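Students often ask what a holo structure prediction actually looks like on paper. The answer is less mysterious than it sounds. You provide the chain, you provide the ligand, and the output is a string of discrete structure tokens encoding the 3D arrangement of the protein together with 2-(acetylamino)-2-deoxy-D-mannose.
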Amino acid sequence: MLYKGVYTALLTPFDENDNVNTQELVKLVEFNLKKGVDGFYVDGSTAEAFLLSFEERKLILKTVADVAKGRCKLIAHIGCVSTKQAVELAKYAENLGYDAVSSVAPFYYKFSFDEIKNYYFTIVDSVNLPMIIYNIPTYSGVNMSVEQIGGFLKDERFIGVKHTSTDYFALRRFKTAFPDKTLCNGFDETFLAGLSMGADGAIGSTFNFMAEKFIKIQELFDNNDVHAAAKLQEEVDIIIAALCECGVMQGEKAILNHMGINMGTTRAPFLPLSKEAEEKLIKTVMPLL
Ligand code: MN9
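The corresponding structure tokens follow.
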């Protein structure tokens, strides 16, 4: 399997002027590499991709490549509403030496499936990098059927799916139909469910600060110690429940700030955490890390 394992969907640190803080981004990458993550998913939802300018997305792609290339696998999320822009980002990632690109389906305008197909094929025709389909229907509003996604996977350039959905039946059907493709679980709170239904690993946001727990869950699962894996998933889910209560990315940044990596806050329209919410989160989460 090409991408087995745990991939951190990197958050974006912002400085006090709301600019991308590349110095802290490097720190975050090193912090995760030390924990043994298999790679990074760069410029995804967790990175606040759709709140970033095009130039900022490029800057992040470059900063991560400069520090991590050759040390782990690098996946560039190049998804945009516009095919032209997605192609430009994909070419940029290719020049930087990324291992793969990934893209959400073009959204907002309710494109037809023919238009979505044309978007993906234009990208893979433009670069010499494999594509991982980013399936996140609740955020994108684009619902592709198992057959439609399977249609992409028949082409060798489409090497897998990042499945951010709780439709585990779909995951199983992908794996059964395409055993050699990479299936990445998307929701960290159901990582073990994903593994049991055919996922090869995961791409997740909470890995930014607790990757070691997911590496352990996968190790336990691979060693057939499902009960111990479930126990650890239960622990992790107490943390994720606390994050969901205050806002996942806001909370993740607060935790990392507390750990000494200066992430700043999330970008507007996200609102900053209130002092009370932050205190409550830190009090719940820190003893469990
Ligand atoms: O990258 C992330 N998905 C989104 C995957 O941010 C939409 C997940 O890691 C979630 O943040 C996490 C909490 O729901 O599972």
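Residues 226-246 form the longest helix (21 residues).
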